[in-house]
Structure formats: C-alpha cells, structure tokens
Amino acid sequence: MGCSWFACLSGEAREVDGEIAAIDNVKIFKYREIRQATDDFSAENKIGEGGFGSVYKGRLKDGKLAAIKVLSAESRQGVKEFLTEINVISKIQHENLVELYGCCVEGIHRILVYNFLENNSLDKTLLAGGYTRSGIQFDWSSRANICVGVAKGLAFLHEEVRPHIIHRDIKASNILLDRYLSPKISDFGLARLMPPNMTHVSTRVAGTIGYLAPEYAVRGQLTRKADIYSFGVLLMEIVSGRSNKNTRLPTEYQYLLERAWDLYERNELVDLVDSGLNGIFDAEEACRYLKIGLLCTQDSPKLRPSMSTVVKFLTGEKGIDYKKISRPGLISDFMDLKVRGPVATKAEQVNRQNYTNPSSSNASSRDHSNAYSSGASSANAGNTFSSTI
Ligand SMILES: Nc1ncnc2c1ncn2[C@@H]1O[C@H](COP(=O)(O)OP(=O)(O)OP(=O)(O)O)[C@@H](O)[C@H]1O
Ligand SMILES: [Mg+2]
C-alpha cells in the first residue's frame, strides 16, 4: 500500500483541516501567515540579507517575535527533500543554538522561521563599535560568557549530534545574542538545504574569507577542524573587539591573526585586548583566550584542539601552558582580495587565488586532486566543489 510523502517522513505528520500543520515539532506556516507577520515583507521589517536570502522581523499569530528567513531562488528544493532536512535541523536543540520554530513550504516559497534574538549579531554590535554604536556594554565577563557559549554550541554540533554537523560558516554575523547576551549560533545545517551543485554564496567574500581555514579554502578539505579554525578567529575578535581585517589600521596591524602571532612571539599578547575595556579585565584569562584562539588557527588541522577540549581550555578545567603553539595558517593572498559581488561562490573566489603559506612544508597540501565530497557528515554530503588551482 502506498503512503503520501509526508507520512513517509521519519517524523509524525499532523493534519489540520486536511493540510499539514506540523511534522514532529516543526510548525508548518501558511504563506499568508508569514506575509501578515512581516507586514507583507515590508522594508521596515527587513533586518538583514545574507547568502541564503533576506531576513525579516515578524510577529506570529501567537504573539511571538520571529526572524523570518526567505530562502533565495537557488535553494528551491522539492517539498519532500526540504521538509526532511527541516525535520532534522529542528531536532538539533541546545541553549547555544538558535531555535527553529518552523517553516513555510508553499509553491515556490521556502521560508524558515526562527526565534528572534533581541540583541542582534556580534558583527553588528561588538565589532561595529561596541557600546558607542550598539548601546551594549560588552564587559569582560559577558565576552568570556559569549566565547564559552559559542564553544559549547559548536562542541554540541561537532560531537554530540549524530551524524555530526560541520557548520561551515562560523563568523560574527552568525552569532546572535539574546536579551541576556547569551550567544546562539545561527545557520547551522543550512548547507543541507542547498542543492548539490551549489555551495553557500556569500556576497561579502572579503569578510568571510578571514574565517576560512586554508585547507578548506584551497583544497575544499572540510572537516570539523575548519570550523575550529573559524572559531579561533572569532575568539580573537571577541577579545580584541576588532574584525579579523581592518584596512583603516597601519599595514602591519591590519590582519588580526598576523598581529596576534607577532605579539605572541614577543610575549605581549595583552596589547591585543580591546582598549574599550578600559583595562578592566582579567589579563591572565584574556591572554589565555587569545592563546586558545592561536591554538585553534594553527596551520596544521590536526594540531587544532577539538571543540570539547576548547571548552575545557576556556573554562580553565584543562591547562594550556604545556601546549606549544605553531604559526597560524594564513592565506595572505586572499586577504587582499577585492572581488565583491553575488556572482562567484565563496569557494570559487577563494580557489582563484594561490595559497601561499610559507610555514607549510607538507607535500600533501599541494595535492591538486581536490574535488570535495564529505562522507564524514550527512550535513555536507552532496556539497561539492572543485578547485582550479
Ligand atoms: N534569529 C534572528 N534574530 C534576530 N536577528 C536575526 C536572526 N537571524 C538573522 N538575523 C539578522 O539578520 C542578519 C542577516 O542574517 P543572515 O544569516 O541572512 O546573513 P549573515 O549572517 O550576515 O550572512 P550568512 O548568510 O553568510 O550567514 C543578521 O546579521 C542578523 O542581524
Ligand atoms: Mg547568518
């Protein structure tokens, strides 16, 4: 006997008035309801635009505020595939991950409905001028709390979710803050919603490139260690209160990682801590955080600690003093990349550049047979790109 497609999903489908209302704990919203919630996708309600589409603030019928992500045309999966992936993503719940309320899948529309976070993303607050611009006081303890929270969320995705999830886009704009400044990682699992021939399109390549692990950027070698590299960059941004790249600074200070390594070698890491803290911070702890950032961004992926170890390093449960830190993996050519625009994917743009890493002597890092297809995680299965270098 045949079954309708939704009944064939692993979860329980509930019908209301002959229509699908929910699958497991995923609410299925009507397009009409989403339009009402966002005031017909009004410009005033638009709160952002990313690689996957536009984001609107909206009030749902039950009174809850939501962040409504309208996926771009490229992400039009079939209804069944889309709902299967949504069902998986919605079950991944942790206090440091943004909660998915539900979705809308009507006709050509593919829309995700998330819990709305009051205090925006780290790039629009802490990295955009901190207190003066956002009105949020990021004192040392709130920063430490954000670092530990993000580390716990990522450790959960990497080590507790089965099959594990590689986020692929850990960066300041994907860290949202609730009213208590508790961090929530957003956009995890979104790669699952992309058709197989498409990698995540980013229109702000320069901003994203600063977070990309060299082995992922160049050879498409995607493992959890690529996320750990991005986390290391983010950690240093949070402690220093600056972006990984700042062209307004003198040349030798422009790249956060280079600057951190330079100061580390001179035993002056404390100079990197945000001057906006007015000297009110635990210097030993702040330097430890910066060293953990350096451990995470080491050129060799296998030298980078796992996220659960990072959590222990951050909380002090495990010491890092005995750890030798090797030079960060830098993609210096990419850092001058001026290409912007929606045409090329992040991977395509990166792959046009040459990877120069003076510290790398590993012959395999010059391996040119680099079509990527991850068998390690279903989160990435099917996402392929090939490099031209
Ligand atoms: N759940 C949410 N609550 C509050 N604001 C949100 C939420 N989700 C997204 N936003 C806002 O929308 C903006 C755009 O998010 P979006 O994820 O589309 O783009 P991005 O993170 O800048 O880039 P990318 O597509 O590469 O992740 C965010 O910077 C944030 O300000
Ligand atoms: Mg995002």
From TrEMBL:
| UniProt-annotated stretches for the region Disordered | 350-389
SMART domains in the record: S_TKc
One Pfam assignment: PK_Tyr_Ser-Thr
* List of residues binding ATP: K69
Keywords from UniProt, A to Z, are:
ATP-binding, Kinase, Nucleotide-binding, Serine/threonine-protein kinase, Transferase
Q: Which SUPFAM superfamilies match?
A: Protein kinase-like (PK-like)
Gene3D superfamilies noted in UniProt: Phosphorylase Kinase, domain 1 (3.30.200.20), Transferase(Phosphotransferase) domain 1 (1.10.510.10)
Q: Tell me which CDD domains the record gives.
A: STKc_IRAK
Q: Where is the composition biased (Low complexity)?
A: 354-389
Domain Protein kinase, by residue range, is: 41-314
Q: Which GO terms describe its molecular function?
A: kinase activity
Could you tell me which InterPro entries the record lists for this protein?
A: CR_Ser/Thr_kinase, Kinase-like_dom_sf, Prot_kinase_dom, Protein_kinase_ATP_BS, Ser-Thr/Tyr_kinase_cat_dom, Ser/Thr_kinase_AS
By sequence similarity, the record places it as follows: Belongs to the protein kinase superfamily.
Q: What is this protein called?
A: Serine/threonine-protein kinase isoform X1
Q: What is the lineage of its organism?
A: Eukaryota, Viridiplantae, Streptophyta, Embryophyta, Tracheophyta
